[in-house]
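Prompt: May I have another protein with tokenized structure?
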Amino acid sequence: MGKNGKIVQMFDSSEKAIKIRARNLPLGKCYVSPNWELAREGTVIVSRQHVNGNLTIGIFLVDLFCEGVKDTFYRFNIPLSEFEELINDSQYEDALKEIGYELAHNIIFAGIDFADEFGINPHKNFEITRFILEEDNEKIPLLEIECGKDGMPVVMATKSDHKARIIAQLNKSAGPGNFKVFHEEDVFDNIEDEDDFDEYDYDEDDESDEDDISDWDEKDFEDYFEGKKKVSQEQEYEIINLIYYSRFPEEGFDLEETEEYKVFKELRIDMNKIMRNNTVNPEEKMAFEDCADVILSDNKKKSLKIVEGYHKKFLRNPVFADLLFMIYMSNEKFKMAEKIVKENWNNYPKDVASFSNFVTAMIEKETSAIEKRLSGHFQINEIFPTDVDYTVAEIVDFYSAIAIYHAFKNNLKKADIYMALADEVLNWDESYQQYAWIHAKQDISVKKLSILKNVDWKNANE
């Protein structure tokens, strides 16, 4: 399991065996996150015992607010020692408690049933992992599991996942005003235990409520687009997405069903490596650390002088060239920035950052050069094939640049798909949100905003 509860499925030939045999195996131990009732979300683990002492286990990430089983995977016929290692892994330390199967079953299916009321399906892997569970029938005692809040679905958005697709679906199924949208950190900053959660006033006039667009009426939408209603830059993309997909539901998509996602899932990505260390000797490494220190000091004049010096000294290394472009941009030396980004495009054809910076900065002026380089290919392994794992920065930079290209060509659905691929990586590590990613968000929002300005406001929230 990765950061933010993201689960990666490993597919193998055991799928058929699970579907045929799993329910014939005795149930073993079950576990759940101890704070699942407070958080309305938790990891549920169910095990089945083989005669050889091994175990088959299903792991379910359940959201009781509205999404149901939003991720799941399995391990087939693993040794007991591997199962115990999983349970005792540092990422689970003090994070799982043993429960009976009946409670585990009820948590999972309560989430599924509640989500189904609003047209939200369980993760596609549930077609396999559901066979690790008992059938959902009257033989399993029904326990009361609270979902949503007072029967109303609640969307918990985060900085890296604005839940635009879920919000659009709820707008269609529940209707505006019949669900709540909150940022997770805003709600949980206000509560300390389950009693606080139950007493938490979702209509409280705080920052999270003032940005709760599910409660907006016609006047709110009008005020927003006329510049009278202010929102944070962080939430503007989410708001525009919600309105856009509410008005144009045919533009929506299930990311995991797209061809782009299927290629993306086959990529080798090192989620523990933010950036590639292209420094090849101790001198370059010290120079890079020197650059990092001075940039972090926020002394723009000194940063420019030092990075310019190292760029001249290590001309063959794209790291310093890319840093120099960013320094020129932050110092608003746009002519110099354009000059260096063109040089980097030509000098470092194998450098992802040079590519993404050029696309981001020059999409309008150099469209033909960009299209010639792409030649109709939009996957990183087609443009930058490699025998080593891609880094977080390379994935985010590349797909953000591709999103910018598609937004420029007015193919907003493709732009959103590639932006979603970049965000898939950021769901693991939110720390890398750089030049191309920021501009991609802005470019897509501007395009959608220009379309939405022609929308009939009396029907904007229907």
Summary: Residues 229 and 302 are 40 Å apart (CA to CA).
